[in-house]
Specification:
By secondary structure, the chain is α/β, with parallel strands linked by helices. It folds into three domains: 86 residues, Rossmann fold; 176 residues, UDP-N-acetylmuramoyl-L-alanine:D-glutamate ligase (3-Layer(aba) Sandwich); 139 residues, Mur ligase, C-terminal domain (Protein-Tyrosine Phosphatase, Chain A), CATH 3.90.190.20. The longest helix is centred in the middle third of the chain and has 16 residues. Keywords: ATP-binding, Cytoplasm, Ligase, Nucleotide-binding. One of its GO terms (molecular function) is UDP-N-acetylmuramoylalanine-D-glutamate ligase activity. InterPro entries: Mur-like_cat_sf, Mur_ligase_C_dom_sf, Mur_ligase_cen, MurD. This is UDP-N-acetylmuramoyl-L-alanine--D-glutamate ligase.
């Protein structure tokens, strides 16, 4: 019997393909059954379910933190019942998973995954994982998978492994989930312990001294930046159309293409279109520049977006669930730029306090709609000649305190701006 902890997209897809399962979720208030025969139970029923299924495979949704009562209960049960197993989505599919490339890091995972899939489409590559397609929806007969891999998934993964691991730079993120920055780094580096000799991992040079790097049997390639990668893999950076931060994503994707198939197709790479909500520019009727960077959910992404527009006066919308991260480095950069902050979300007061310390104008807007309205008022006072402003939504925070996703946040931002 499959026991599913959490019933989000990942486990819902497993339940559709492997029904009947038993699914438990903190949002369930009573026992029920779906159309496929899956039993849906409140999370507090887990102990009883485990006693009745001592040899069960227990699959956790990646987003459930280790401190969650279901995880604690499951781990205690597995410790005393050797035939029971707590698995990640990746571990569950490990026996049937084709050769796979895993891509992780703090920022750029989605773009790098999409770019590499674009480069290798003629080879039959399929992409999934954190990019939005659960593994249960991928074809196990595909030649290989390219998987955007979150630190949450890696935390719970003990069996599955890639043949190639690409790790983008690491900065503070999801600290409240992992418990510490050190734990976050450890989970990001876990795959290199599973790699065999001659299998490759491309890693930031800043992690070279980590104990996992000394233990790994894999061929570890360390890089400092895009130019460093270009030198290692003999890539022509001038032939790549993207600027930072997307240049690093493109260079990593091209490096992987070179490793896997000895190909460097710059024309194909340059035909790739960056997805929505990532430094996505648009203009209102008056010609004012707005930028939707709603996918900027951590301080590093927001710092990159600020650097991108450093020559302009930036009207910056910040705020949401900052996941317990120290935002001091972000405000160090902000203090060096021409920036006014429009704070929204659950950390509004924290942002206003940090802005005061950085001697930066900050308005406690609390909601996105109010922030956009105040920015519109500023735009209305500027003459066309003097207008060198950009309105930038790059929140350095997750969206779930006020929105269903970063996508909804970005779409509402655009709608409010164009009203």
């Amino acid at each position: 019997m499959l026991i599913l902890l959490g019933f989000g997209g990942t486990n819902r897809a497993i339940a559709e393909s492997f029904s009947p399962c038993i699914a438990l979720d903190d949002s369930f208030t009573q026992k029920s059954q779906d159309a496929l025969g899956n039993l849906l139970l409140p999370s507090e029923s887990l102990s009883e379910v485990l006693v009745q299924n001592p040899e069960a495979s227990i699959i956790t949704s990646p987003g459930i933190p280790p401190s969650n009562a279901m995880i604690v209960t499951a781990l205690d049960f597995v410790a005393t019942h050797p035939k029971a197993r707590l698995l990640s989505e990746y571990d569950f599919f490990a026996p049937t998973m084709p050769p796979s490339v895993w891509i992780s890091g703090t920022n750029g995972k989605t773009t790098t995954t999409q770019m590499l899939t674009h480069l290798l489409q003629s080879f039959g590559a399929q992409s999934g994982g954190n990019i939005g397609t659960p593994l249960a929806k991928l074809d196990t007969n595909a030649p290989f998978w390219i998987l955007e891999t979150s630190s949450f998934t890696l935390h719970y993964t003990q069996i599955a492994k890639p043949i190639l691991y690409l790790l983008l730079p690491i900065t503070q993120d999801h600290i409240s989930w992992h418990g510490s920055y050190e734990n976050y780094i450890t989970d990001k580096l876990k795959p290199i312990l599973f790699l065999r000799e001659k299998e490759v991992a491309i890693l930031p040079k800043s992690l070279e001294s980590h104990s996992f790097c000394k233990q790994s049997l894999a061929n570890l390639i360390f890089y400092q930046d895009s130019q460093d990668l270009a030198n290692i893999f003999r890539l022509n950076l001038s032939a790549i159309a993207f600027k930072e931060p997307f240049l690093l994503d493109a260079t990593l994707a091209m490096s992987a293409s070179e490793i896997l198939f000895s190909t460097q197709d710059y024309t194909l790479l340059n035909s790739f279109k960056i997805g929505a909500h990532k430094i996505e520019e648009f203009y209102d009727k008056a010609g004012n520049l707005w930028v939707d960077d709603s996918k900027g959910t951590n301080l590093d992404a927001t710092m990159e977006a600020i650097k991108y527009y450093q020559g302009l006066k930036i009207l910056l919308i910040l705020g949401g669930d900052d996941k317990g991260v120290d935002l001091t480095p972000l405000f160090g950069l902000i203090s060096q730029c021409q920036i006014e902050i429009f704070a929204i979300g659950s950390n509004t007061d924290k942002l206003c306090a940090l802005a005061k310390s950085a001697n930066t104008p900050c308005y406690a807007c609390h909601t996105l709609e109010v922030a956009v309205r105040q920015i519109k008022e500023i735009f209305a006072t500027q003459s066309l000649k003097a207008r060198n402003y950009v309105a930038l939504l790059s929140p350095a925070a997750a969206s779930l305190d006020q929105f269903s996703s970063y996508k909804e946040r970005g779409e509402k931002f655009k709608a409010y701006a164009l009203e």
